[in-house]
Design goal:
mainly alpha, 3 helices, single chain
């Protein structure tokens, strides 16, 4: 099986339980506890959105580290990600920490 060197991080997701929203509804209106519970639920949703945006990059790096992808696939995933942010997409230099020179 491909990948695995990062425990399939590209498929990682944090579940925002509906119980959080149920808890928020059980707390008093306009209370700091209810606000914080709602904020936590929103933060989990936001984190999942960020994870989803990184998924292709993480997938490409993990598969490259396992020898199933080349640096071209990593470069392509990074370019795609950067283009969604409006960042410069080219040239992308791929360097992993194991390649870093002292």
């Amino acid at each position: 099986m491909s990948g695995g060197s990062f425990e399939y991080l590209c498929y990682w997701e944090i579940e925002a339980h509906g119980a959080l929203l149920d808890m928020a509804m059980a707390l008093a209106d306009d209370s700091p506890e209810r606000d914080e519970t709602e904020n936590i639920w929103t933060a989990i949703q936001d984190l999942n959105d960020r994870i989803l945006k990184m998924r292709d990059v993480w997938h490409a790096v993990e598969w490259e580290q396992s020898g199933d992808y080349g640096q071209d696939q990593v470069r392509s995933a990074i370019e795609k990600y950067r283009s969604t942010l409006g960042l410069c997409v080219s040239p992308v230099h791929v360097q992993f920490s194991s390649e870093a020179k002292p």
